[in-house]
Amino acid sequence: MPRDSHYHTYVAAPNARGGSQVAMPRAPNAVDFWRGFALITIFIDHIPGLLYSRYTLINFSIADAADLFVFLAGWSIRLMADSGRQHMATRDIMMRLFARALELYAAQVLITMLAIAVLAFTAIELANPLLLQWHNAAAIFDDPVPTHIGLAVLTHQLGYFDILPLYVVLMLMAPFFALIDRTAPAWTLPVSLALYVVVLAFRLTLPTWPVAGTWFFNPLAWQVLLVLGFTMARPDDGIGALARRHIRTLRIVAVPIVILGVLVAVFDWWPDPTNMPEPKLFFIADKTYVTPIRLIQFLSLVAVFSLAFPTIRKAADLPYIGAAIGRLIGMLAMLGRNSLYVFCVGSLLSLMGQIFRFYYRGSVTIDTAVVILGIIIMAFTAWLAEIRERWRPAPAAAASRQA
Predict the structure, then answer these.
(1) Band of residue 15 on the pLDDT scale cut at 50, 70, 90
(2) pLDDT in tens, 175-195
(3) How far is residue 156 CA from its own chain's centroid?
């Protein structure tokens, strides 16, 4: 999700340009912290063969950082709708979500064009045309006319650059769910679950073109995670309030599910699709359709680790190590506050990391350098975004100048 100015706290802070009010970033919170964690995890996971990718969530869980990112996107929509302006008008919510979809679309087009340029430049410099075949890029160079149409309408996607198209469609669907939430809130999650069940039962998905296939992330199924995040973030009633009232019981139930997920991932105990009854998607672990096995394990992870951030934040007060923990919390939260910028840069850095490892035949030293440099650049990107925002006057100051 892109960072939004209404997610920030505006305080009266001195401005070197004239002492007016400036926008200051909000304090670290669980949503930003875990979104920053997900961004770093996705960056590492998108470099196949990287030494450190053996230790990310995807190796110890059925669900992974992509599930977390979509869930937190829905949670952030709730915060935007109900916190910043005390129940923003329904029309304003819908327009803001449509605008966000447009922003995500522009970001997808930009990073895709840059990724194509990186592959083309590297293929020329290394005299290796095989690089033009990487990550579903062959059609772009072999049959550019229809493929560029596909890139423009999101029906052709590069490998590892297929998350933002998912977000674009989810943000186009989000106004519909926001409208239901304002008119009949009890129906928001049931409608989402009904669509999810129909999609699984009939294998409904979006096609790719001009290369025949389907989307790697099926938005018609992944919308359920967005809506779960949106509904569970409701502070006063609904499924979120119910879960918070019974969180201890939920954690007791969730722990064995999380352990089972670890065993499945570590020992390769995945369900055999050939032995499953129809409709098979209800009984197998599939990322494209975020199937029930994956969804249940992810929600169990949320229940178990919901205590993690408060515990980590308390550790920031410890002697000796507290300062380091505090800086880590601050950095991850900063990444999360500026997630769109960081995600775009991280996607391109992942591609460059793949090329770097391919050329230098990855080793412990190379992999360590790739990860450290990548995280530094991502953090610098977030820092630049926040510096830019801090020099922008807060709404109250701007309004007083216009009065």
Answers:
(1) low
(2) 999 999 999 999 999 999 999
(3) 20
Quote the tokens at residue 232.
């569970």
pLDDT in tens, 71-87: 999 999 998 887 654 56
Q: Where are the alpha helices (DSSP H) in 163-305?
A: 163-183, 188-202, 219-232, 238-245, 247-267, 292-305
Residue 199 near residue 220, CB atoms below 8 Å? yes
Residue 319 predicted with pLDDT over 50: yes
Instruction: Using the structure block, give the residue that is written with the tokens 């039962």.
Output: 201
Strands 207-208 and 213-214: antiparallel
Any residues with CB less than 8 A from the CB of 321 and at least 6 apart, and which? 315
Q: What whole-number distance in Å separates Cα of residue 347 and Cα of residue 343?
A: 6
Given a contact cutoff of 8 angstroms between Cβ atoms, the answer to whether 15 and 394 are in contact is no
Q: Count how many domains the chain has.
A: 1
Cβ atoms within 10 Å of 128's Cβ, excluding its own: 12
pLDDT reading at 202 higher than 80: yes
Q: Give the domain range for residue 90.
A: 5-402
Q: Residue 1 pLDDT > 80, yes or no?
A: no
